[in-house]
Amino acid sequence: MEQQTKDAIIKLIENSRDAIACSIDSDGFPNAKNMFKLKHEGLKTFWFSTNTSAIRTSQWMHNSKSCIYFLDAEGFHGLMLTGHMKVFLDDETKQKFWKEGDEQYYPLGPTDPDYCMLCFTAEKGNYYHGLQRHLFSVEELQEYNPHAL
User: Which PANTHER family match (predicted)?
Assistant: First the structure.
């Protein structure tokens, strides 16, 4: 993959506040939800927070297969990453990501039983720009240093 394409992928992720996350329901159908991206570690690991009681949380607890999608509609850029979503219910992980203002969604604070963390681990990607697409494994881009931009 060309360096320019790698740079564009990282730029899309860095400039995206949101990602569309998809789970699989009990009938095998995909379910999509827009989520705030809290943190990411390269192209491999992405963190989100959500309600433990959310429909998709239950779906990921039963089937971790997932994808996340980043979009720049004006520039015709899209990135789909497929992998697995893990649900974290432990207080240590929840406290690590807690920030002021989260009580708006989780009024009982970082130990709120309706607050959990999601960690998406990517395996493969599909980057679209214009009429071109680039299929890749995340390992192909692991060595890429996004801080070189």
Answer: PROTEIN BLI-3 (PTHR34818:SF1)
List all residues 6 or more positions away from 27 whose beta carbon is below 8 Å from its beta carbon.
none
Asked if residues 106 and 116 have their Cβ atoms less than 8 Å apart, the reply is no
Q: What is the pLDDT of residue 21?
A: 98
Mean pLDDT of 86-97: 96
Give the model confidence (pLDDT) of 5-42 as tens digits: 888 898 999 999 999 999 999 999 999 999 999 999 88
Distance, CA of 44 to CA of 128 (rounded, Å): 18
CATH number for the region 3-148 comes to 2.30.110.10
The pTM assigned to this predicted structure is: 0.90
CA distances from 106 to 8, 29, 51, 67 (A): 35, 29, 8, 25
- Residue % of the chain over a pLDDT of 70: 94
